[in-house]
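#lab-general

N.A. 3:47 PM
ok so I finally got the sequence cleaned up, no stray characters, all 449 residues accounted for. can someone with queue access submit it? mine expired

B.Y. 3:52 PM
send it over

N.A. 3:53 PM
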Amino acid sequence: MYFNDTRNNGTIGQGNSIRLGEGALGANLDLGEFGNVQLRTYADFETYKQSFFSVALNQNSQHLTDLQTVPAQGIGGSGLWTKNVGKRQTLVAGYDDHVELGHSNEQIFSSVTGDNTKDTATGGHQRTMGVFGEDIFQLKPGWTLEVSGRFDDWRNFDAFLYTDPFIPAGTPTTLNYPSRSYTAFSPRASIVNAINSHVSWSASVYRAFRAPTLNELYRSFRQANNLTDANPNLTAERLTGGEAGLAVRGLSDRIQIRGSVFINAIVDPVSSVNCQVVPVPAICPAPTANTNTFVRENLGKTFAPGFEIDWLARITDRFELSGGYQFVDATVISAPEQPELVNTWVQQVPHNEFTFQGRYTNPSLVSFTVEGRFVGMQFDTNQLPMGNFFVMDAMVSRDFGHGVELFSAVENLFNEEYVSTAATSLSPEQRGLPIAGRVGFRFDFPSKR
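B.Y. 4:20 PM
back already:
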């Protein structure tokens, strides 16, 4: 797959572009009485470019501050083995390995004179290896127990920060960050009970983790007058949670309703420390004129209970409606570096979110899809409110056979104006994508069986 996208971000000269490609190879092997094996290998590359400007509060002028190029490449592979043991048990085991290389190259400019003040380059490697296993038991008719575990090992290495100052003139320097390695064990257990052909319930408990990305560790970025610095000392987020749900089906599966409640607790979530509000000496750089500075940091602990409901209605064989609602009360319960955030909402996590979709499918004529999304009030960096909004998208497509499909789509159909980044004392609010259209085609190579 190859993808190329170029955008103007609202003012002359301010924009970004993405160029990426990816490919994969795989094989499925039937080993008879020894089970089945799936093998996959893949590679990808991406180059992101963006220009950053400092915008005056009255929005009548702007100054170039940063030209950034971010190349990244990745390669990996996986293997998955499955085997049925008798009629009531299935064993699953697997291994995956992924290596990611990412850099960020920048030219920094003075927002006053426009001079190129320095060039920087930063980045590193990250390798993640994991092994996992799962045992699926059919305890008795209608009852299924699943127990699984995964062990991960990941390393950050060959990381550096290169700086070449021009104004004032200085000597180029290179800071080599020490290599770091971590491990994590992620268990999960779940049980499902089909009460009858129409009603079933399930419950599960689990632990999981998320390693900080190369972007969070080494790449700083700017949006208007807001500068967010990377942090090479970030550690992994770790989640512990549980959920229970009920599913109901009727009218030959034409009506489906699923609901669940959940509780999740995250330790060391990666967040942004606002150095203007909480100037933490250990992590905040010296203040810069006309700039809001944020630094990524492991926050402490968050707690998020909630529930969600999804539904699907097949009105006819060609027309169906679906939707969902989620409520989550994601709250900061510990923040050693920013104690004033305790009992506040987790940034950019709204309490309420509703989605719906209508789809009409007629291969001999056209297929039409309309989607809507309502997002309730949320906060940017925990203190700056962002109002709710509703966005609708639509797409129409036609299948011409032989793997060829043409499509046309409109995003933000009603041109809803909504905030993507809240206003601060030094920068205006940033708006989300306005109404946008696209046309294209898809081609699927014929498969040989």
